[in-house]
Design brief:
Elements: H1 11-23, H2 27-54, H3 56-68, H4 72-82, H5 117-144, H6 149-172, H7 180-195, H8 199-216
Helix pairs in contact: 1-2, 1-5, 2-3, 2-5, 5-6, 5-7, 6-7, 7-8
Length: 224
């Protein structure tokens, strides 16, 4: 029996397969791929955290440097490289009152076994953003059709977007590490709460969004 690595079994491969389904309007298949990819990354992160705990005494200095003590110039260098994966900064100069973003393709050349916790956090966050965006698009379609199912999909999209934001915060433990897809996720959360007339949650997330925009040095944002 021939044995080879199938990229569809990797988180990056499943993510990119999901984008293909999404581009063809196959939302159900896209969601399945993104969820499978997210599950793989959750297990990867769990294993990395366990490994870090077991080697805490000998690896403490390296962990501090990787997660919390990365110098500002290193963060900016990583950020400049990663922001190419998402829509350019010109798309963020004016944040509209609508769903923003496009699915994020992930380079599948790197072996996931060699991922650092930093790599895993970014990859997991991007996969969850793609899942949230897919659910958001379904919700918007049903909202326009005045379907009762719109609320269900809005709730699912909110959950994915929030997990997307929380995973970076909990793993990276550094508020200065921010990526454009996090800004897009926060914006889309604000937009959903706006549609649902949930002004309390909208105001809270809007503050988080404005803070994230400040970290990205994109400038101020104003909502009506």
């Amino acid at each position: 029996m021939m044995s080879f690595k199938n990229e569809s079994c990797t988180a990056a491969g499943l993510n990119n397969k999901g984008i293909g389904h999404l581009d063809r309007g196959k939302y159900k298949e896209a969601i399945t791929c993104f969820k499978q990819a997210s599950k793989i990354m959750s297990l990867t992160i769990l294993q990395q955290q366990r490994g870090a705990d077991s080697k805490k005494e000998t690896k403490e200095a390296n962990q501090e440097a990787t997660l919390a003590g990365i110098r500002k110039d290193q963060i900016q260098k990583k950020f400049r490289h990663r922001r190419e994966d998402v829509a350019g900064p010109q798309s963020l100069k004016k944040l509209s009152r609508s769903t923003l973003g496009r699915p994020i393709y992930i380079d599948n050349q790197k072996d996931e076994k060699n991922y650092t916790m930093l790599d895993s956090a970014y990859l997991s966050g991007k996969i969850l953003f793609n899942l949230g965006l897919t659910l958001n698009l379904i919700a918007m379609k049903k909202y326009e059709e005045k379907s009762k199912d719109a609320i269900l999909y809005f709730d699912k999209a909110l959950d994915a977007y929030k997990r997307c934001c929380e995973i970076q915060h909990s793993i990276l433990q550094n508020g200065t590490i921010i990526d454009e897809f996090i800004v897009l996720a926060l914006h889309n959360i604000v937009h959903i709460y706006d549609l649902l007339n949930d002004h309390d949650h909208r105001s809270k997330i809007r503050c988080d969004l404005e803070e994230a925009l400040g970290l990205l040095c994109i400038g101020d944002i104003q909502y009506e």
